[in-house]
Every structure is written in structure tokens, then in C-alpha cells.
User: Fold these one by one.
Assistant:
Number 1:
Amino acid sequence: MRLNKEWTIKGIAMAVTGTILVLAGIAFAQHRNFKEEVVLGPGVTTVRTLGDYFAPLKGGPNDANVFILGSGEPGGTMLVLGASHPEEPATSLTAHLLVENATVEQGKLIVVIHSNPSASTVTRPGDAYPRFFHIETDWGVKRFRMGDRWANPLDSWPDPETYVHFPSGQLLAYMDVRNLNRTWPGRANGSLAEQTCYAFMRLIEAEGVDLVIDLHEAELEYPIIGTIVAHQNGLRIAAMASMTLTAEEFRIGMEISPLALHGLSHREIGDHSNAPAFLAETPQPFLDRVRGITDESLLLTGKDEFVMKAGEHGLLYWPIDEDGWPIDVRVGRHCSTILSIAGFWTMFNRSKPLVVTGVPRYADVVAEGVGRFFADPRGARAQVVLE
Amino acid sequence: MAVMVLYYVITALFTVILVRNFIKTRDVQKGILYLTVLMPFVLRLFRLK
């Protein structure tokens, strides 16, 4: 009798556990396997993948699409990296917008929408991130994956006790062995993130990249925010871009990449290639630790009363008010920052001009909304790449 | 890669031990605890999380 009661309870517990596992498993699998639709814009001349530059990545989780927008005219080559950290969605949206809208009249533009695709297939455990977010467009609602800061442990596991950065030997936090912005310049036999950075360095060599822009977003509690961090080889360009943008469009600072802080794009790309590297940051209240409900609304509107309260107490490095930091503002800032850096590159390098058109500036994106700039993947002439 | 495979083997081993303990225990509270602990191991073995 007692045995029957015991197994009845055990059976109910097994059914509940099985149901949780199936429901959670379906949700995780949907997120991991979801593909975003990218409509190739008029400027795209070639689509390659990172595996074309470093064969071991081919067909793997980080074989990212590389969109090349050529002009046929000689000039400079600029690489724009979106979603080095996929929990910073204004970065992938900006890169996506570039692919669908930009036209290059002189030089070449290379865009990667998801620079660490593995990290875009997982969200942060315990932080209740939404799996997806949605942008209103002229033709309907477009769905995007929300991601994490680190590559998916399903693709890169286990982490070391301490991550020893290559080649500096600097000790970094263990999980940063999966962080694309701590593993530059990478190594061929390293972790997935290290191999991905290694592939990007081979891309920079092979394509003759002249400058790199790594797009990011930051919490308002973090001091490196609303700024351009520049390698010492790109200080003139960053300073001019910062001053001009601040005078004409929005406030943005400029900082020099610390010499002794290793693994970051703005330090290592500049040190290990001829390309000066710039890292652009926008404010994203979604990432603040003091935030309230972590949902799609916060991700898109950037409005949060708890972050505002922290601001009232002087605990933030960047202002916030009841208007928040909407996704249109954040994408618009990145668009203008990219255009401004390209413009000043051309001013200082007359023999290697880089002229990009078709990309909206800050005021355009804020006025019309980022969704206005995404094409219908089911349009008659749409050439779609799954991202 | 070899270390990653080894970690999956360890995960499988813990899964077997937890299932075995669940079956053998007469204490239903412990049984529920074993099932709760089992969930992340199963999700990792099936490469879902």
C-alpha cells in the first residue's frame, strides 16, 4: 500500500518534471534555431562567411555571414562589427540596416551582423531576458533574436578556472574566454571566441581592411558609455567625429584605448593589424543591474523607473529621463557615428576615400523609426540571407 | 574539444546516478529533489541549454 502511494507521488513528480523539460526544451530550441531574414540591399556585392577566412570555422556555430558592399572604385575598406555582444541589440540592428540600405560609391564596406553568432542563440541564465524582440515595419512585424554577452556554452564548454589572454598573458574572468570582446586578436587553436577573433584578423588581412568599427551598448552604471573608444592610430578621426557629432547631432565622448587592457577590439586589432579600431557605445538601460522588469518593452523603449531613480541619486554615468533610451535613438546614434568616422577617414586619407550613401542619419532614424529601413523579405525582388 | 566530450560524459554519469537514486529512494521528498537536480543535466545532455 505504502509502495503504491510512494510511486504515485513519484509518478506525478516525473510527469511534472517531464512537462517542464519538454516546455523549456521547446522554448530553448526555438530560440537557438531561429533565423533572422536579411534582405540584401542594393550595395551588397558578395556574401561570404568567416569560414572562408579560417577554414576550421566553416559550417560551425560561428561561421558568421560576411556582407561585402563594394563600389568597384578604389578606396578605403571599412569593417563594421555588429553584435560582438548580442545582448546589445542596437548593434545588430544597425549592421542589419547597413546591409539592407547602404551603397558604397568609393571604397568597400564589410558588415557582419552577428559577429559572435553562438552568443545570439542563448540568453543570460537567471536574468529572464526575452528570447525575441519585434520591430514594427511598413510591411509588418520583423522578429529578431535576443542574445547574451558570451558564446553559448553548448558550443564552448567548459570554461577554464581563469582565462589567460593570448598573447598578453593577462588574467581575465573565466567566462570571458567566450566573450568576443575579450579574445582579440584570437588564436587558431583556442576557444570558439578566440578562433572567431582569429578568423576576423585573417579577414582584415585578406580584405585589406583600413579601419574597424565595433558596435556596442552599455549600462548607464558603467563609465564607458556614450562614447567612441579609439586605438591611438585612430585618435584624430575619433576626436573629430566626437566633436562634430556633439556639435551637430548628439552628445558623444571620445576615449583613448588603454594600452594595458588586453583582449578588446579597440586595443588588439590596432596592435595586430594596420587598421585603427574604434568601439562605439550607446546607452542601454536594459543592461543595468538596478533595472526593473526585464522584458521586450524595456529592451525597445529603454524606459525604467528604477534606473531613473539611480540617476536621481547620482549613481549613473549617463543621464536618463522619462523618455528613456529608445531603440531608434540608439540605432540612429550608431548610424551617424559610422558615417562620421567614414567621413573623417576620407578627410585624413585622401588617397583611400570611403564614401557610403543610403544610410539614414540619427535624425532620420529617430523621426521614421528603425523599422522603416527594413525591407520586406517576401517582396518580389527580395534576395534573402538567413542570419 | 576532448575536454568538452569528457564533460558530456561526466554529465551523463551524474544523470544516471540521479535517476538511480530517484528509483531507489523511499523518501518522496528526496525523490522530488533528485528530479529537480536532474533537469539541467538532461537539458545539457540533449544540447538544449
Number 2:
Amino acid sequence: MLNNFLAFSTLVSIWFSLLASLVTLYGAIRFWIKHSKKIVSITPLKRYPTITIVVPAHNEELVIAKTTKGILDLNYPASKIEVLLYADNCQDKTAAEMRKAVDMPEYRYRNVQIIERQGSGGKAGVLNDALEIAQGEYICVYDADALPEQNALYFLIKKVLENPSRYMATFGRNKTRNAKQNFLTRCINQEVIVSQRIQHVGVWNLFKIGRIPGTNFIINTEYVRSIGGWQQGALTEDTEISFRIMEDGYLIALAYNSEAFEQEPEHLRDYYYQRLRWAKGNYQVVINNFKHLFDRSNWRVKLETFYLTCVFFWFNLAVVLSDIIFFVDLGCVVARFFNPKIPIIFAMDSNLLLMQLLLINWLLMILLYVTQINLALATQYGQATSDQIWLALGSYFTYSQLFIAISIQAVCSVIGDKIFKRDGSKWVKTKRFAD
Amino acid sequence: MIDVFFMLAILVTLIFLIALFAMIHSVWTIYHQTEHTVLHLGKHHHVK
């Protein structure tokens, strides 16, 4: 009886998560049916606000020169841009590479400061330092490996100017710069496209909810000053500030045309630690904001907290349980070859018709997973190829299963940090590659 | 309990089936619209 209940409730939980994701998918499809035929043109903006572009870089000698040039080549009036390049506690030639790029003749008269920083606080610390000296009306952040497309800033500003009193920040998207490197980067590329073209777009289109990513976004300088800057010590400082913006009744708007090219981990170890940090950060965000489900917070904050709670606690637990059930039953089936009297533990009353139906249901879930990836790929020219279909199918059984291990370790780590009062905000830097 | 669960399984399977067909149709539409738009602008126009 208990076995049946466990199996049923696990399956119902997974169904619920899929049905919830179909809602987001619906929002994304509506958006893309309309916008994929829209011809966008670069027309002059009604005004060009001053922008401070901040680039926090910690030992980024391999990629920083290209990023610096990309930023200085942005299609935006040079007189309206102030660039603050931070070489944060660097032991390599990051600052020298920055100087080499900035000293090029074409950038001679640009307003650029290179700051060699020795302070603490990681990325949030850099952003807070920049906040003190920023002259721009908006602060724009690019990670050291994020090479912006020429019109990236233009689209961010264009979006914010649609409703500057309501849109306190706007964010674009990140494309994978090294997508074709290996199987891992190909899978990451698919995941990035799905999260940005389906998840971000769907949630924005349906609920006007946005979440600031780590890079390629702008935020109102005065607003950040008014809330006391970025929270230091948080693993995902961007999520914290996103919650704060929504809590204050403002919006984080999606500028879907704004694109930056970001480098993704090429080795499993780098990928694992990057995602572990993200997962831990998200668990911390859920724990810190759980109270909003029961207080008088903004409904967007409640919805976002509910969503994150479901994904990171309920659905993850359901997926882990379903995997345990699968492997226990598989073990029983194998053991029955040697001793036919061994029962199958989670047999669901041995109802053959139900088993067949659930098999069809499972196959449909896999097809939905593959189709969702291909839907996201179809929104980006050149991505929807037949190879990607097979890759999506392969990633279901390999790449996507990795997240189970990551989430289990993240939960254990967050609980351990609480019990043993450890500093859980230690930042493991993602390794970069020359390209 | 099994009966209720069985009915629920049929309902969810039907929803998934409908969602799948709707999605395949959408992939087709969006793919062709995107291709048409980008080719209209030129592949290197960077404003899609």
C-alpha cells in the first residue's frame, strides 16, 4: 500500500511539473508565433541615456581583450558610455590585456577606466564599488567572457525607454560562444536556448516576470543606490536583486533581441561546479524568500517563490524518488531471474493495462522534452537541424540526468552550511578557454 | 485508488498528446517564420 502511494504520488508530482511547464510553453509559443515574423529595424531612439558599463574580471586574461573590444564597438553614442573595467584580485595579465585593447588608436578618446581592485566581496563587491563612482543613468553589466553583439545595448535601452518609470531593469539573452566544442557544450547550448527562448520568454509574456541574469542587463543606477547596492556574499546576487525589484512593484523587462555571446564550461568538472554554485544559490534564495509565500508580498514575488520552491524541492524530490523506484524495480526484475519468488516492490498492483498506459505516458514525456528543445531552436536561425533532434534525445538520458546529482549535492551542502555554520558562498571560478 | 489513478493517467496522457501535436505544429510555423524573417534581413543583420 505504502509502495503504491509512493509510486503514485511521485508520478503525479512529475505530471504536475510537466503540466506547469506547458503553461510557460504556451506563453512562449504565443510570443514566438507573433514575434518570429516581426521585422526589427534599428531606428534612432527618442533619447540616449548615459550608461556606465561595468565588467568584473577575475583572472580573465584569455577572454577579456575580446570582450573589451566588443563593448567599445557597441552601436551606441560613444559620448554616452562610461566603461569601468575591473581587474578584481587578478594574479594573471587581465589588467595588461585590458590596457592593450583600450590603447588601440580607434578607442583613444573613449571614457574608459581600468581599475585594479584588491577588495573582497567577489562580483557583488565589484558592482558595489562601481556603483559608488558610476556617472551613468543606467548601469550595464557584462561578464568578462560575455561578448556583446553590436546592437545588444541598443535593444536593452530601447526596451527600458518603452516604460522607464516601471521598467527598473532590462535583460537580454546569452548565446553559447563555444557551442560546437564538444558534446557537453552542445548540450549546454540547447539548455541555454530553451531556458532563454522558452522559460524567460514564456514567463515574461504571461506574467511580466523577469529575472536578471549575471550578464547583458541594465539597471537604473539611482534605484540600486536607493536599495543599498548588491547583496555581498550571495551566490546568486542577481536573483536577490530581482526579487527586490519585483517586491518594490517594478518590472524587469525582457529585451529578446539583445544578445551576448558567453563561454560555457568545456569540461565536466567545470560544468559541475558552476551548476552546483547556481543550484546552491537558488536553494539559498528559496530558503531566504520562503516567507514571502505567506506575507503580503507582491504577487510576482509569491509566484516566483512558489515556482522555485516547486522546482528545487518538490519536483527534484519527485525525480530523485522516481529514479530510486526505477532502479529498485530493475534490481527486482534482474533478481527474479535467479529467484522467481522475489516480488517487484513498486508494481502498482500489477495492473498490466495501467503499466502499458504509463509506458505510453513516459514516451510522450520524452517526446515533449525533445519537441520543446526543438521549438526553442526553431526561434534561432541556423539552430534547428536534424542533428539537434538526436542530440536532444541523447541529452535526455545523459546530460539532463546530471542535474539530479547536482541538486542532491546542493541540498546536502546547503543543509551542511546551516548545521555547521560554514561559509557556503565560496565562489569556484569557471575555467575559460582561448577562442 | 487504482481506478482513480487510471483515469488520471488517461487524462494526463491525452493532454500530453494534444500538447505534442500543438507543439509540432508550432515548431513548423515558427521555424519557417524565423527563416523567412532572417533571410529577408540578411543573415548578418543582427537584429532578429
